[in-house]
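Page header: ASSEMBLY MODEL / two components / 752 residues total.
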Amino acid sequence: MTATVTTPGPRRARALRKKAVLPWLFLAPGLLLALVFKFLPMGKGVWLSFFDVRPFLGDQWVGLDNYTRVLTDHRFQDAIGHTLVLGIGMSLGAIVAGFLLALLLEGQARSLKIIRTAVFLPVVTATAVVGEMWRLMYYPTSDGLINSGLGLLGLGPVPYLDNPDTALWATMAMGIWMLAPYNMVIILAGLAGVDRSLYEAAAMDGVSLWQRLRHITLPAIRPALGIVLTLAAIRGLRVFTEVYVLTGGGPAGSTDVWMTRAYTLGFSRNDIGGASAASVLLLCVTLLLTVTVNYFRKRGDVR
Amino acid sequence: MRDRRRCIDMRLRRVRRLAAALAVSGFLFGTAACGSGSGSARAGDPNTLEVWTRSDPESAQTYERVFAAFTKKTGIKIDYQPVMNFDQQLQSRASTKDLPDVMINDTALMGSYQAQGLLEPVDPASIAGHDEITAKSWSSTVGRDGRHYGIPYSRQAMTLFVRKDWREKLGLPQPKTWQDTLALAKAFATRDPDGDGRKDTYGMVVPGSAQNGYVAWWGASWLWQGGVRIIEKEGSGYRPAMDSAAALRTVTWMKDNLFCGDNGVIQPSALTSVTANTTNFQDGNAGMYLTGPYNISTFDKALGKDTFEVLPAPAGPAGNDVLADGENVYFGARTGKAKQEQTLAAFLISPEGQTLAMTGDHQPVVRIPVNSTLDAAKVRGDARWSVVQKAYEDDSLQFPNAPDWAPIKQDTADSLNALFTYCGSDVKAGLKELNDTLAGDLKDQDLLK
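Prediction written out in full:
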């Protein structure tokens, strides 16, 4: 009797153990890679940010000096301002543009698939290549693609990248062009889940296009927008290659962003401690922003 | 079996180095550090030297020829890595305390490397043929502590490249002064020198971005010619010198005439251009370029040898000194292969090594030989190189080699780029601010007097 009672116990426990271990086994390679390539470097980065880094002479503990130096450097302060303008502008612009593209390109037609693929190309093209392409497009004479277009209208040429008043906006335009198709794909997935009968009912009620967007489409794609916003919050502040290739942070530092400044600190000035401190600060702000966006998203979902 | 072990060893080494590279660069630089230079199976082999040069694929082919000749002669193998983003990769490797055995890179970086302890001191007497290098060249490898930290390998000075066919078509003389240069630049921009009936040519090419300090590098020759020094030696230290009357006069002249003057004197987008994307001269739409002689072979291929001329830089109010720089051979700290490294250095500075590096079908990696028994023009059979050699020997000035020059160059570039961008800016106030910043840089290095 006892045996019949006790036998399933260990078997169930074994099964449970197996069940519990199996997912971890599948996860192990990914976790190991993340540990080696992500979390250990991250930890080392935080550690280095408290030192004057001199691998061959011995690192010197400087406490919060690197942080103080970074935060009180007026070039860094300017760069933080540019990062916020560029990050927010690029993120919102790319969400709006991605949403519009998704509305335009939603559907099953074969031609739409081809157009969607073409529109998606900027996402899979190397940022450095895109940057070089846009440098040519922005060429500040009538030979440049955009300026030759303006020339037809009797305007320009405009020195987009060489004028400190326009360089940041020109960089933002390129960023939106690159990011919008990515958002488009996520929003398209959201749109696919919208109940068509709601549109039909709305059409019968004779509602306007704007009302249909506001009361049916936008609420329905709220989860997709949440994902897009979270990704934008992470990506917006990390902008680097676009700026580095297009303007190198110039002219006169007018497009210098957090990452280009940190890169200059690390590799033009060989100040790895300062660059690490700048990177840690960026990580903290990104985390804060991501958590905030998620909080509001979840609160919105509950409501 | 040995191959397999070597393969495993190589993989482990790569993983270790990559992890360390990622570690030093933290969140920011991790992914960028996975490129070339991360791994060699033979780094532990005493008869193999790992050698890095900052080279593009074109000049790397010349280096490969030089190293092949060295291996044939001495039996010492070379594990050669041409590295484009040299300093980024070097910082990553420094964090693993496993530097390349030998590095060939810019002279102006020596102070920076020494300040970080990346270099092994060099006793000139230990390098066979050291007496064939001039005292002037050897003096440029002395560090802050009076010891040598590099072996001169190649030298160069900037010269002015001018479209000869355009100049002759417009009937204008070779420029001898800043004013001549300006007049010629304006003529190139406005008098349709290519005869296509369109206003699509520019006077002068300028890599004027602050990125990696480019505008300070290009602008140094103009500063020297205006009698300006960025920092000046004083006793055992230095003092910043960008608040001088000469600096005010020179920077104002550059701003008013080149950057904020007549449209077309310099190419569009100069303020965000680095040398890699400043191709207007070889593209055939700009008439002048004050730059290094390594471009001669590129321009020969793109434009044809007879279309342009190589001239000494025109003189400014204080003479026609130009920026001299070049490359040194550096020994990585703690590599433990001193004998082999010295043998390689001796070969690289020998007439044979220098000649190999100056000739061939690809871009030469020795421009002006440091070996005083050689004549650049004779070795190449090209008289244009004598203009460069003369400029280097008679009218050139290097960046000071002992301080960590990287922050000084970057701050100077940031400041000049800003002054040239804002045409209404107050040059005097801008230079005063730069001078204070430079004082801070020197103070950080305990060099401020």
